[in-house]
Structure formats: C-alpha cells, structure tokens
Amino acid sequence: MSTADHPLAAIGFRAEHWPDLALPAGRRLGRIVEQHRSGYLVHDGEAVVAAKPVPKLRHRVEDASHRPAVGDWAVLLRQGDEWLVEDLLPRFSALTRGAAGEKRARQAIATNIDHILIVCGLDRDFNPRRIERYLALASASGAKPTLVLTKLDKDPELDSHLEQARAVAGSTAVHAVNAKDPASCAPLVALLESGQTAVLVGSSGAGKSTLTNTLLGGEIQATGALRERDGRGRHTTVARTLLPLPGGACLIDTPGLREIKLTGDEQLEEAGFDDIDALAAECRFRDCRHEKEPGCAVRTALESGKLDPARLASWHKLGREIGQAGGEGLARRAHKRESDAGARGLRKRRGETQGRL
Ligand SMILES: Nc1nc2c(ncn2[C@@H]2O[C@H](COP(=O)(O)OP(=O)(O)O)[C@@H](O)[C@H]2O)c(=O)[nH]1
Ligand SMILES: [Mg+2]
Ligand SMILES: [Zn+2]
C-alpha cells in the first residue's frame, strides 16, 4: 500500500519511516494527538479514542522523554472497554527539552515532526536571545526549524526587527506574517508539504493558536483574543494538540514553555551561529574559546562593533548549558541505547500476524 492511500496518511503516517513495520496480532496503530494529565487522545485514522499507557511506558522511564508524547505512533491494544498504549514506534525526530526544575529529566514536546515553527511576535514578545535558545533546542531534534515572526501588521520597527531576526537565524528561513491573514501566511502553507508534521513553539501570546486557525481555515484552537460575548478573560492553549490541515500536513499547537532548558544533545554549530563560526575560523588557535586568547578574530569583531556582545554572551551561555546538561546526560544515553534496541525488537517481530495498520 502506498503511503498516500494509507488510512493513517491523513494524520501524517509515512511508511518510509518504518519500512519493516509488523504489528503483533490484535494491535492497531494510532497517533497521539493530545496529551492530558490522565492519559492520551489517539487518532486511529477513523476516530479519536482515549488511551492510557501501559505501566512500562509510564515507569520504565527514568528518562521521561521516552514517555508517549504528541506526535508519537502508538501501538494500541484493546483491553475490556479501554485502549492501552502498549508501545511506541521509534521516533524519526523529537523536540525535547530539559524538564523544568528537575535536574536530569527531559521531556518530549512533540515527536515525529518535520518542521519546528519558532513563533515570535513582532511586539513586546520580540527577543533575539529567546530565538537563539529555540534554535539551539531545535538543533538536537532532527526536524527543520523555521522562524515565524507574527504581528507584522502591528510593528512600527519592522525593518530593525527583521534585521535582528535574520542576524540570529543564520541559514534558517525567516517569515514575517500577520497570523490573522491567510494571504500573509501563504508561504507557511507552501512550506508544509502533505504528509509532513510541524510543531509550533514560542511564548504564550505569540500567535501560535491564531496561526493554527488560519492554517486550518477556521476557528478551532482557542486564542488569547478577549472573548467578546462574555468578556471572561483570555483563552490560552492548555494542551499540545495535533490537527490535520486541509493541505495534508499536520500541525501541533502547544502552550508556551515557561522554561526553555537545553538537554545537552544540542549542537551549537547547527543553531544559527554562522556569524561566530565564520569569525572563529579566522582565530589564531583552532580551539580558541574567544575569551583571552591572542589573535582572536571573534573578540576583534566585538571590539570593532561588528559583533553584538549580547550575541557572543548568548553563544557562551548556551555552550556552557549544553556542556553541563551533557555531563548529566551520559547515564541517560546508555538508557536510550537500551530502549532503541527495544524499539527495533518491535520491528523485527516478523512472522507474527500482521496487525491492522
Ligand atoms: N494583529 C495581530 N494580532 C495577532 C497576530 N497573531 C496573534 N495575534 C493576537 O495575539 C493574541 C494572542 O494570540 P494567540 O494565538 O492566542 O497566542 P498563543 O498563546 O501563541 O497561542 C490574540 O489576541 C491574537 O488575536 C498577528 O499576526 N497580528
Ligand atoms: Mg495558544
Ligand atoms: Zn577566538
């Protein structure tokens, strides 16, 4: 069966990611479309059902990023009148952050994604340092980041903001949009190919749900606009939700993250710091840390005003955080190897009755 005809294609299933897939007898596959405290909502291609993870998926998990998350393909088993998430297909990508407060814990924000849309308002929300941090986080995901600047229609300092955004984005594409206006969002529609999945990340109020509604072509996600009828304050998104778009792509809307903590798996060379990398190539020492070394081209650029000191400080800070979290992560990676081997086991169990896909 080609991917396009697959019953799960409308929610982003692409067979090429799991060429050897064979489900154990009696199982079916569904995609986690929403996550709540008490469990998950899973779309099985026809309907959305509530499902609870088996204890293994709740507890095996010293590393919480291996717990089921929105975007995951869940192997579902019916038990009485309940659906259980028995296992997950191996993820081809995942946006993961260090979990707030807990030292070694990590949390998957969205999985099996092709695009990460980093949403930042061209209003008080505009913050190049935060954009750098999101780009760093994206570097460990396996998905492609795109910077989406919203509230284009309300920005009196557009030129300066665009210049600042492009300076931190490196080779990452930058789109400035009015999230309320479909014509303005057309470049994003073009970006999201049928079968692909994108996740929206950014501060609360940045315009993620507004953008979601525009891309959906209707009001589905509650936005922060003041409710006119009852005037009872503002809606904010409380759960991560995966929604199929008319063009065949899927979009995951998320609430704002209060803390964007790195995991240690990020690669600063992939995080848009092309300007600093180019300068570093001119430093006298190949392993120059751009601190006190003689012949440092980065510090020369700083002194001549060519490089923004806040940008270099950010590069140092993110680099230190990656190093620290990376040290904590050694035990975690040993664990990941184990669970990846477990996932491969699932694919290898051929010979068993082919489950409904
Ligand atoms: N003028 C204008 N307002 C926007 C734009 N994007 C979002 N908003 C408004 O910003 C507020 C927060 O938007 P919302 O989508 O809820 O943000 P979220 O928290 O990121 O989901 C709402 O009042 C939106 O109407 C935009 O591009 N232009
Ligand atoms: Mg929202
Ligand atoms: Zn240097």
CATH architecture of the largest domain: 3-Layer(aba) Sandwich
Order of helices and strands: EEEHEEEEEHEHEHEHEEHHHH
Strand coverage percent: 15-25%
The mean pLDDT is: 86
Helix fraction bin: 25-40%
The outline comes out as: globular
What order do the strands of the largest sheet run in, or round the barrel if closed? 10-9-8-11-13-12
Q: Describe the main β-sheet briefly.
A: 6 strands, mixed
Bound molecules: guanosine-5'-diphosphate, magnesium ion, zinc ion
Structure description:
This protein is about 25% helix and about 20% strand. With about 350 residues, it is α/β, with parallel strands linked by helices. The chain has three domains: about 5-90, Beta Barrel (OB fold (Dihydrolipoamide Acetyltransferase, E2P)), CATH 2.40.50.140; about 115-255, P-loop containing nucleotide triphosphate hydrolases (Rossmann fold); about 275-315, Probable gtpase engc, domain 3 (Ribonucleotide Reductase Protein R1, domain 1). Magnesium ion binds near residues 208, 209, 236 and 237.
